[in-house]
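Most newcomers find our protein records easier to grasp once they have seen one. To make this concrete, we reproduce a full record directly below:

===
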Amino acid sequence: MTASRLMLDHVFDHEQNHPDRLYLTQPLGEGRVAEYTWSQTLDQSRRMAAHLHGLGLEPGARIAILSKNCAHFVMAELAIWMAGGTTVAIFPTETAETVRYVLEHSGASLLFVGKLDLWEHQAAGVPAGLPCIALPLAPPTQLDSWDAVTGRTQPLTGRPQRQPNDLAMIIYTSGSTGQPKGVMHSFERVTRASEGIVAKLHRDLGPQTRNRVLSYLPLAHVFERAWVECGSLVDGNTHLFFAEALDTFLQDLQRARPVTFISVPRLWLKFQQGVFAKMPEAKLDRLLRIPLLGRLVARKVLKGLGLDQVLLAASGSAPIPPALISWYRRLGLNLLEGYAMTEDFAYSFSSSTEHNAPGFVGVPLPGVQMRLSDEGEILIRSPGQMVGYYRRPDLDAECFTPDGFFRTGDRGELNAEGMLRLTGRVKELFKTAKGKYVAPAPIENRLNAHPMVELSLVSGVGQAAAYAVVLLAEHLRPLLHQAETRQQVQTELLRLLEEVNRNLADYEQVRMIVVAPEPWTIENGMLTPTMKIRRGRIEANFETELPRWYGSDAKIIWV
């Protein structure tokens, strides 16, 4: 890590040293794409920066971006930084209520409106009088457009500088447990963490490798922002591709042929279930055992997923079942798990070639310090550590130890090699009527490892025993009206329940499995924008049903 340079210094160097190197590829629909070199990217950003500078905004003015991932998200962020502002990115799936909260809480001076599916519902959340600029892929609006602004504005020249302690961005958490919190990150800490990420990628890929990455997880989330966007801004040798839409995802993957591919557990599971829908698990397992044929079959499976060029695959944002990691490694995909959070700019733990046991999230990245509290809580001090929570000094006092370690709220344990295993959330522990605490995450991981289960939730506060709600795999849900399929699913769930309970202490054992009656989605509020379950929302949905469930002898309950 180079202590003197900041993020914009890296960017200006790429503009100067590699002006014609392709940086961004944006699909436009019907197979068309727009491509931008470093020179073209910076020309666009400099023009918008000059416009923002001319508005006379206060130093550090918060400027928001509401958009799905696209090339102009990156350009807008660079423009904000060059103009002296602080970026506030809003998840593109947020409700109008949350959009308004973030804009008002951050004190945003301007909003970039980008590629969106829900703008007609979100527009009501934009405060009256707030200046807005529409990015090129925005829905039809009456707003001033990016192209119009950049077309009439001369580019900002030179190398506009920011100070190490200036705020680069405020990242609002996705709010899985309540109102979103604004996490402040300075240029110094964002740069140091991003340099560490690039060093990690260079170790795994080789420093001269031309990295190709498909950006599709929300850029408003720290995982994608740090490891994809900011990593590419530091590296300069990464080619970013963007996804067009959910329906075109496979084509987008085939276009990008990524070298590095980052995803979240739910999507890794859905990819696996998609494979099983085409080839039964038992048949695939049998073929993979045949020495020469197995390698050919594995290669074909990866090519079908668009992942046959991947040298480094990573999973983050939530725990991933160890069995799922092992399955991908059997296919020859180097799937590694990491552990980090918004508060350390996604820079804390990662698996490596030497430390990659399934079920563990690796070892501390260079510069990261970690220890366990007496209660088993993971405490971390990272080069990417946040400055604090925006306008919430009370939370700052709660979340840091006196010597500056961040209280993660996660419980963990270390093995003899210093690798970390997550054992649940401190606040997610619940006590049953037996008076014993139950950690839901390890039990959920065991349930989620079954190919029939997409997601699960374990709860049972104050009840005689825990219960589990499972969301069945997508390919199964349309078939449940068939009596034969339903009976097969019930039999398999009973077997799963017995298998899971066999490895649990008596006070942890799950009394019943409840089949979720509808999918859990971001749109219906059951998942966060990063596809983590919203425990409180799901538990509240079933609260009135608990007396009936516990009054029954059924082990499998269909709602």
